[in-house]
Amino acid sequence: MELFRRTAGGMQLTEPGKVLLERAYRMIALSHRAVERAQQARSGELGRLDIAYYDSAILDGVTALLRDFTAQHPDVKIRLEQIFKRTQIDYIRNKILHLAFGRNYPMESAIETRIVDHEECYLTVPVGQAMNWPDQVDVDSLANQPLILFPQDRSEFADHIVHMCLSAGFPPTVAVEAFDVVSALAYVAIGMGVAVVPRSATKTRSGDIAFIPLIGAPTIALSCAYLSEGRTPATDLFLQFLDVRNSGSV
Asked: Of 28, 47, 126, 218, which sees the most CB atoms within 10 A?
């Protein structure tokens, strides 16, 4: 693979060379961030929490949680990053991140999780079809409906919806497998089908779609992931906040 080409003015990067250079810069930047955060952890820095999330999980229960935490601890700076769940755990383990919020975390060495919220499910339909649906629907109403599932790898939330339909006595009719909740809502808006989404997704309201409570559907657990040991003081402060909140004192 040719990375450089000679020109009359000297050397010039080829397209593959530009791509490689860009990736190298990103790796260096990530490396610097990792060193910086490791130094912060060693020095016992209290005032910062680097938090990962993915998809709509950040829009409802987590937002309220972090708002209450910062109200009690205004000196702790919050920084949010949208990161795929499979990467979140590696970043926490390597102390690049302190916390992560998501659904259905698998058991991992050196990582603990705790449930912070339970989200109800909603059916989302094109707004022009909303008048054809009641104010609330049950799971049986999804039989023979063209369903849009997400995420595309058919894991986690998609499997939850498939299991929910099978438990109700019918196989889902899958119309589209969307990449994430945002693309699923877009498919609904253009009339490709209907989708079951967690409560947090209703915060992305649009004039093109409507949300209908789905009764009889299992709730979706939203969890927080963090290091089992060697946490920063800010992380421990947040976990103490969760303990107090869960006890009903907040």
From this structure: 126
